Amino acid sequence: MKPRATVTTDPDRTSDGAVAPAGGGGDGDGEDTNAGVNGSHGSRAATTARRTRTAKSRAAGNGPAAGPRAGGITWRQRLRRDRALVLMTLPAIGLLLVFNYIPLLGNIVAFQDYDVYDLGITGSPFVGFDNFTRIFEDYRFWEVLINTLVIFVTQLVLFFPIPIAIALLLNTIMSARVRAWVQAVVYLPHFFSWVLVVTVFQQMFGGAGLVAQWAREHGHEGFDLMTNPGFFKFLVSAQAVWKDAGWGVIVFLAALAAVNTDLYEAAAVDGAGRWRRMWHVTLPALRPVIALLLVLRVGSALNLDFEQILLQRDQVGAGASEILDTYIWWTGIKTGDFGYAAAAGVFKGLFSVAMVLGANKVAHMLGEQGVYSKK
C-alpha cells in the first residue's frame, strides 16, 4: 500500500479551515495532490511578486498611474496608437490654419487708415474705431443689412423644410433602387456652379425663356421673373432649393437610418397609423439634427451666397439684391477703402457669433444639444 500524502498547514486557508481539494484519484493520488499544492504555492508566489513590482513601479512614477489617463491608457499611448489618423489630419489642419486662422491677423486693418500701395499694414496709421463709426453712421449700410436679413428669413422659411419633406418621402419608398435613383437626381445640382444655376433659371423663367414663350404661344402676356425686383428674394430661394436641397436630404436620411425599427413596430401594434408614426417616432428622432442644422443656418444669416447675388445684381438693381457681402465688395474693396471693408467684415463676424450663441441657447431651452452641449 502506498503512503498517503500529507498536506501541511497552509496559512492561506479559508475561514472554515478547509483547503481546496487537489485533482486526481485512484493510484498516484499522493503525487497529484503534492503537484496541486506546489502549483498553488507557485501561483500565489507569482501573483505576490507581480503585485510587488507594480507597487514599486507606481511608487517610482513609471507605472500606468503616472500622467493623465483616458480610456485606461496614457495620452502618449493614444498618440502612438492613432498616429496614422493624426498624420492624415495634419494637411487639413495646416490648410485650416493658413486660410482661416492666420488671415484673422489682417483684421487689424479695420483699425487703420490702410494704404495698400505705399504704407502697408506696418506703416498705416491707427485710427481706432473711426471705420466702425463710419459704418454705423451710413444709412445705406443698415438698409443693406435689413435686406440681407429679409432674404435670409425667406430662404430659411422656404428652403429649410423642403429637405426634411423629401427625406421623409424617400424614407417611405420601399424599393432601394428607386430611392437611390431619386436621391441621386435630387443631389446632382449640388455640384453645379452658380453660373450654371443662374443660366438654367434664365433659360426657364427669363423674358425669352421657355415659360414666357409658352405663355405667349397660348395668348398670355409674357413675363420675366429674372428682372422683377419684388420677386428677387423668392427667386434666389428657389435657386438655393434646387441646388442644395439634395445635400440636406442626405443628412436627414442618415438620421432616419439610425431610428430603431422596433419603435415603428411598437407604434403599429398600438394602432398608430402612418401619420401618427411619423409625428411621434420619425420627427422626434430628427429633432437633434434639425436643431443643429438650424443653429448653423442661423449663424450664417449674413453669409449668403456672394456669387449667386453678384451674378444677378445688375438685372434687378442694387436696391433689391444688395446684401452685405456685395455692399462690402462695391464700397470697400472695389474703391480701395480696405479699412471700411475690414470693419464691415469684423461686424459681420461678431454678429454671426452672437446669432450662433443665441440660437444655441434657444436649442438648450428646447431640450436639444445644439452645436455644443450645455454644461
Helix content: 55-70%
Which structural class do the helices and strands define?
Answer: mainly alpha
How many beta-strand runs?
2
Give the strand line-up of the largest sheet: 1-2
Radius of gyration: 35 Å
* Large-scale geometry: globular
What average pLDDT do the residues reach? 79
What share of residues are in beta strands?
under 5%
> N- to C-terminal separation?
78 Å
- The secondary-structure element order is HEEHHHHHHHHHHHHHHHH
- How many H/I helices? 17
Largest sheet: 2 strands, antiparallel
Low-confidence stretches: 1-42, 61-70
Summarize this entry quickly:
By secondary structure, this protein is mainly α. The protein is built from 17 helices and two strands.
What are its keywords?
mainly alpha; single chain; about 65% helix; 2 strands; 17 helices; globular; about 375 residues; two-stranded antiparallel sheet
Structure description:
This protein is mainly alpha-helical and 375 residues long. It contains 17 helices and two strands. The protein has helices spanning 29-60, 75-81, 83-101, 120-123, 130-137, 139-159, 161-171, 176-187, 194-205, 210-217, 232-257, 261-269, 274-299, 306-316, 318-321, 324-333, 338-365; strands at 69-70, 73-74. A two-stranded antiparallel ribbon has the order 1-2. Residues 1-42 and 61-70 have low confidence and may be disordered.
